[in-house]
Amino acid sequence: MSMSSLAAVALAFLVSASVSSFAMANILIALPYVFMMATTINEMKGQVFTLGNFSVTGEMYMKAQGIDYSPWGFWQNQVALFGIAFVCMVLAYIQLLRINRWK
Q1: Which residues form the signal peptide (predicted)?
Q2: pLDDT digits (tens, 9 = 90+) for 22-63
């Protein structure tokens, strides 16, 4: 959960350094819903959901959604989140360097 938070904060830094309009920044922050995939894997794996006589495991749900729930699938998400956070932080730093300090 901390990697997705770090990636989201990095994206927020980048957007706030790049966009002057609050409405546009709000839209850009709301778009990346993909960060929830790592949380889905952690919470759904090993769970059993029952509705009356019908039972669905978390693995069945993730397979139906096309989510890779293997150990590499989890680490793949972590590496991707780290990459997103790193790139966003570097781009935010570059944007902040471009701001005129004596304005």
Answers
A1: 1-17
A2: 766 666 666 655 555 556 666 667 777 777 888 888 788 788
Q: Measured over all CA atoms, what is the biggest interatomic distance in the chain, rounded to whole angstroms? A: 69
Residue indicated by tokens 């790193």: 86
* Predicted TM-score (pTM) of this structure: 0.55
- Kindly report the length of the chain: 103
- Round to the nearest angstrom and report the end-to-end CA distance of the chain: 39
Query: Which pLDDT does position 90 carry in this prediction?
Result: 92
DSSP 3-state of 27 = helix
SS3 of 40, please? Answer: helix
DSSP state of 53: T
The alpha carbon torsion through 32, 34, 39, 45 (nearest 10 deg) reads: 170
H-state helical runs in 19-70: 22-30, 36-44, 58-65
* Domain residue ranges in the chain: 2-97
Instruction: For residue 18, give both structure tokens.
Output: 């790049």
